[in-house]
Amino acid sequence: MHLRQRTIRCKTYIRRPYNSLTGWKRVNYKNMKRFLSLIISIACTAVFCYGEEPLAQAKEYYDSGAYAEAILLYDSLLSENPSAELEYNIGNAYYKAGEIGNSILHYERALRLRPHYPDAKYNLQIAERRIVDNIQDDNTTLLSLWVASLIHSLSEEAWIYVSVALFLLFLAGIFVFSFVHSVPLRKTGFYVACIAIVFSIVSFVFAGVTHRQNTERRVAIVMQGIVNVKSSPDKSGTDIFVLHEGTKVRIRSTLSEWAEIQVADNVGWIKLSCIERI
Fold it and tell me: pLDDT for 41-85, tens place per residue?
């Protein structure tokens, strides 16, 4: 009898700390989950508020006419998270501040990030009216303009998506042509596959062209009021023509602190400090 009681007491003595230990783990696990959830929510709120507060402050500066302060805030936000909207906003601030070169530069960058951005396109046209230079390339054909416009109508990522989608359509057409017994459906599958693979290749080429343009950044904007273009990469070179702020140029090559640029049929050298790449 005494032995049985001792056994029961022994089992009870062992179970109690075990139950209390698992209970302690259960309680602390729940508390830990609540604590982590609280920390995550606070961190997310802080990040959101940090991003919203400078943006709202920059808008207040812009609305009140403090364009220099708005530009500084937009520029700091751009360095952290580049976006077409921020490029557009800082372009507006530069335009209001009378800096046409910078405004055109950032409108162009906004369109590079988002080709279909009607507000940026419209404001770019407004800003370009204030450019002194009126340079037209007589060698540019309507076909080349149309192809360039088509390439720039979508971003690099969008062209890749289009190419992949058309390639999947090509595979679907091949599947229909190979495994469907209906002759009309097989013909349809064959024609769809042929058209899809052609446009898939074209879209892939357009994506490659856009990628090269974005990485090489051969297009730049003149940032100084008046720039004398030289015949050679040297200060003693002959002045061959003049460019003004806001004019778009194409960089052909660079040598030390000089850049060989082309505007329509005109080619010459200017200092890299006079231009800014888009």
Answer: 554 444 444 446 888 999 999 999 999 999 999 999 998 889 999
- pTM of this prediction? 0.72
**Residues 261, 252 contacting (CB under 8 angstroms):** yes
Q: What residues does each domain of the chain span?
A: 1-130, 142-216, 219-277
Q: How far is Cα 182 from Cα 54, in angstroms, rounded to an integer? A: 63
Give, in degrees to the nearest 5, the angle at Cα 196 between 194 and 201: 100
Tell me which fold the domain 219-277 belongs to.
Answer: SH3 type barrels. (2.30.30)
Identify the burial level of 196 via C-beta atoms within 10 angstroms of its C-beta, where 0-12 means exposed, 13-18 middle and 19 or more buried: buried
Structural contact between residues 210 and 226, judged by C-beta atoms closer than 8 angstroms: no
Mean pLDDT, residues 198-211 taken together: 95
What pairing do the DSSP bridges indicate for beta strands 248-255 and 239-244? unpaired
Architecture of domain 1-130: Alpha Horseshoe (1.25)
